[in-house]
């Protein structure tokens, strides 16, 4: 059997039996350990089938090989088997109350792990697995005093062996032991039960080392009383309480003392008038420390200590007074006392006019007493008193007088020696005390009647709740009066008048109240309602019970309200509109009242039943019902397009209508009727339209019809004056039958009617329509003949239809109007018409037609009438013309004429009707230089004939002379340019001259390119063929008559660049949408918008409009585009480089100018220059070491369009004209103050610069003035370009070589001093990444300061009495001040500003939602302020005024504010700084439509935190919670006493803000909202910078704040305080770091949290600095860098 040990993963299989030290196998021959040696080899018989191997190692894995041999041959089989591990033995435990430590002896053999399990009633409570070589384990968090079953199991492979035992934790000790005297005279021990389990208690009592008590108690006991019979009073004992559980115990002890025994037999041994003596015996047993004696009368007492005495005497007592003497026995802090009463003997005053004498009977026999009372040595009274008496009252005495009493004892004939006592009667009290305030709130006047008897003086005291405020002594010889000043208003005082006589006093007390103070600044406003007034005021000073507000009218009180003292406003309703009320605010304190009055006027009511009726084409009649309430007057204002037409008409309050005249016909007006009451007004608006004017000069001209059988009419008219929407023209027969009605646009002045009956008379009505109003005019006329009816001036054509039957021919007879036969003609039977010639023009004829058959005529003749056309007049000429009139004459027409109509066109006179006898007419009132056309219409019956003639006012030659020399026509007006239909065209539009005559317009342009001009209207042209991007100058000229001209010039229209038309957006909108916004478009690009209407699958024609987007800043080039080092050439003072035009895209507009940005920097960050304009000039860079970047002058772009050519070569630092020229061309006194006067000076040698090219699409306006907000973009900064060193001459080189060793020695010495005395000089770098709002003017460049450099930076600022700090703050003075504040300055908003010089900028002001009928209701004096996280992180606002509290809460609600910071008191130094805008208690209050309720208030020493619930009655949203942080120790215009307080407050607020439920702005306010508010915001931002970036930019932070609200961080001391806060924060951090790492104090201003780089030891740091010093010996200064 081969034995091999296998130290690998353990397996056990085919085992029949497993024991710790043996293995039992079946059919086994070989057992071996799996190493390289044989462990055991045994030979068994051929019949053996079992074998046990003993003596093996526990827990070990063995390999058993069974070899079968037969005849020299072998076969084998191998299995693995594992012995069981040995059990854990010698387990011991160590315990305390909550843990157990088990230890054991390491078992024999191999063990993989030890598993220890703790059971509590068969429940596993802890189980831990330890390595096989572990010998102990500790269990924690066990229950004290409990028993646990522990199972310790050894593990080897999958085999285990277990050992079990029971252990117990020690019980816990009892707590809160106390041993104190019990009420029964012993000692009482109390305690609190221990934690865990226990069985019982045992109590021990020790006197020093002697045990007195040993008692067992049950587990439920919590106290034990030690009987006092066996204890000594006053002695100290120790009690021990033992908690027992399962043989284990825990003890706790405490000390206590027995109360000492009291003294025995305490009594009064002796007494007289001023003395009491007490005596006692010591207690029979016990111990004590000393005695403590007290003598007491009322609340007054005296104290005395004694050690071992048994008596005590008290002297200088008051005669006749009852005293209590107490003797306390003390032992430690315990005492036991006994008291006794005693009275001194006395001759005492028993009133103001009596004395009482008491005595004790002397020893021996006494028959009587003899008492004699003397005053000033004169006997006043003599009394003999029986022996049984011991007191006597002496009456009838003078108050306040001094008396002496002699008393003697009489026994028989003997009299004792008299004894004397002196006493004084009490002085009398004063009477008839009068206290008045005289109407003053700060004074009281006191007077009284003097007291009877003897009085030394009076003492008048003024008391406030038993506290003496003032005290005035008054001599008895002085007048009995006095006064008190400087009192609190409305306060109730007690006036105490003490009558004093020697040491005695008598007191009279009365109460009086000062007059309450009046409230401050009462105000009554209408709050936008006509039936209410809101009254508010500043709280009255002093004490008051309530306010009473009265509303009076005509000296009669109409309403009153009582207002609690915590409120300062109230509202009255149901008042009369427009009435001026007297508002009185009374302050009540007790029965006193003070009042102050003001006036308040309700808003007047608007008029009722306002109506507008048109009274014709030029008049409107406005009527209304009177407005309710009081009205001073009405004003009627006429508006057109919201512009006032006439000055308002002021009407009396009794007028209820007004007629508006001289109006434009057909125009829609707004009529505003305003009700005025005092300065207040309310307007009621209604629209009214005048009747449109009727069309004039109606003309009906017969026209041919469209067919031979039809006829037509041409209807023309002259438009009436005024506005109209359209015409409606109706055609009807003379008997009223309507034939046709047509709507006609308002610009059309003629209309054709066709397909009419020839010769038929018609009536045409034209209706001018404006809105719903119309005006009509009617004309009548006869339709023309048929198309070929033969009617001329001298002929008529007759036509008929063939009759029925047979006939031979016709006979036609022509008759004149008188019935005379003019013609008689036979006509063939086959004819149906006949032309009659040679007739008289304009004459009416009658035709009769009969048929002939065999010479017989028809019985009836067919008849018809007709008329020849009248002949036109002849030789129509102008016979006279001057500047204002034209005279026409003509030769009358032949034939019959009824009348002439003479029409002159281009004049409003219209037609003139003349009789047939006229042959001339003169038109007057014409316009000089105008060409007119005169039409003369000849009428004959219903037929007309027309001839026209032309004439111009004044003689033609004179007209030309005047117009060309004196009277040139006026130029056109309202010239404008619109984009044309293509990118190479524009459309010019203008209006004709406002007066005078003109014929046409001519257009010229420069440069004189061959452009194409298309006339679309008399006053518009489309100019095409323009060169893209080129600037053109156009001139439009008015032409009149022979060529007189008036010109207007249009400058600089420019065509756009040619671009391809691309579909940008395709939107489908809902049917009700009438507006849409298209965004994300390219700048400076023409877009065409097409709108089509779609319905039921059909699409309307397109409506198209074109527009051009605005020019924008150029797109920012990518970071890879920048000035390249490869394309640059450096010298010691200049850098030559190239840039390419393709760096900047012209997509947002053409590039106009460039400038070069130069930054001194050796950094490699991928940055752009600061986005400010302008940057400093070269002169600022050279003269101010803090300026690290500058710009050159602007130079125009020479880049051709659409090319990739280079933009040019720039030689920076060479003084070229392109960059501004050399800087030595100017003297210092000529420099432009500010960042102007750019030039190109030499660069510094051996200096790294980073360059950027700035491109402008917009820089100058049309007058070449620089615009306020130019449009520009920058390339990214180049990599550092280092200029060369200046060449050294031979002398310099020799000196350098000779001085090198000396310099080395000086540097070493310098460095030793430098390390101790010189702080680190930080390297200032320009903040190239800082984003600053575009608003405001650039005032200076400051750089962020690293935290490790800040203190040295601050020391520099504070040097020379804060010179640099003051200069830096002065630089901030004008930041942002060039912005507008127009809204804040509106008259309606001035009253909403607490200070008239602290106003919000228009660009950053907070806007509220508009309220009805109040266009200024969106204003509140508040500004958005950016933070480190959001653009609108803060809202800085003023302290609310009484009239703006509603606006403040509305701002909080509408802008989602959850945190409000208040850094002012409501009243400071007697001045109101902020009105209390929150409820004083937890009762909810209304502020406008918002309900505010205070939920909690936490008052801390330096700030108060309140929590409010806000509910909006007009909103369905849930209530909101708002937290109010009120900092209460910050003086106005000053700073808090310590930085720690404000820093902690800012951190507290920031913590709450970061945990707020939303990102709404944080509202911060003080009084004005700039000084303390700005300081708080700046500190909050800077502390966040410090936490996130490790850098501080205080200047930049305040700069940014002032760009958004003026005067932020208002004073220099606040600016300095910010620096001190940052310094103290850094010092605190540095102190913590030094405590954590002792190496850090080596660097005085070094904090590894904020300086980059590894920390090094002192030796390492010195080596680095030494290298830097030796390397830079030739520089001007030495810098030590972190």
From TrEMBL:
Q: Residues of the signal sequence?
A: none
- Its chief place of residence is membrane
Its keywords, alphabetically, are: Glycoprotein, Hydrolase, Membrane, Protein phosphatase, Repeat, Signal, Transmembrane, Transmembrane helix
> Which example biological process does GO assign this protein?
angiogenesis
| UniProt organism field | Poecilia latipinna
Q: Which GO terms describe its cellular component?
A: membrane; receptor complex
Catalysed reactions, semicolon-separated = O-phospho-L-tyrosyl-[protein] + H2O = L-tyrosyl-[protein] + phosphate
- Protein name in the entry: protein-tyrosine-phosphatase
Question: According to the lineage, what is the superkingdom?
Answer: Eukaryota
InterPro entries in the record: FN3_dom, FN3_sf, Ig-like_fold, Prot-tyrosine_phosphatase-like, PTP_cat, PTPRJ_TM, RTP_Phos/Ushers, Tyr_Pase_AS
Residue ranges occupied by any Tyrosine-protein phosphatase domain in the UniProt entry: 1365-1625
Bilayer topology: Single-pass type I membrane protein
Q: Which SUPFAM superfamilies match?
A: (Phosphotyrosine protein) phosphatases II, Fibronectin type III
Q: Where in the cell is it found?
A: Membrane
